[in-house]
Specification:
The chain is 22% helix and 25% strand. It has 155 residues and is α+β, with helices and mostly antiparallel strands. The strands form two sheets. A three-stranded antiparallel beta sheet has the order 1-2-3, with no helix packed on it. It has a three-stranded antiparallel beta sheet with strand order 5-4-6, with helices on one face.
Length: 155
């Protein structure tokens, strides 16, 4: 297997989304990428999105009463727009060097990943472009296990 072939996505199945049959594992399996290591059961998380969030009244914990009981101020309310998840992370390649990892919720190659790469390149500052092109990733990701999550919306 090539280095990229050792990376796989752990994601929830479509029926979980349609049926609302979420559990403690599937709530965390949105944008979860793991890389197989050289030994059996040697795997490392290289990217992870955020927990699944739910609409008002979609689950017991999202009823108004439940929210009111757990609410802490100040609060911020925002409108949720539809979009897709983009993940920007780093991982250690077989040579021990850090490399960029760019994906959407569940794939590392698609038209959405290509669009995400173009947007990253378009919006990056000159300093960040310098770090990327000179492989000085650590200055942007001070911890090996950090991941930046973005939601791309089409208005």
């Amino acid at each position: 297997l090539t280095d990229k072939e050792k990376i796989y996505s752990i994601n929830f199945k479509s029926f979980v989304f349609k049926d609302g049959s979420w559990d403690s594992f599937s709530i965390h399996a949105r944008g979860l990428f793991v890389k197989k290591g050289p030994e059996e059961n040697d795997e490392k998380i290289i990217a992870r999105g955020f927990h699944k969030f739910f609409n008002l009244n979609e689950r017991d914990e999202t009823t108004l009463n439940s929210i009111r009981d757990r609410m802490k101020f100040p609060i911020i309310a925002v409108e949720k727009h539809n979009g897709y998840l983009g993940l920007l992370s780093v991982y250690e390649n077989p040579n021990g060097e850090l490399e960029w990892f760019i994906s959407t919720k569940s794939v590392i190659e698609s038209k959405y990943v290509d669009t995400f790469k173009k947007l990253i390149d378009f919006y990056l500052t000159d300093d960040l472009k310098y770090y990327i092109y000179n492989k000085d990733i650590v200055k942007y990701f001070p911890q090996k296990m950090s991941c930046k999550c973005y939601i791309f919306c089409n208005f």
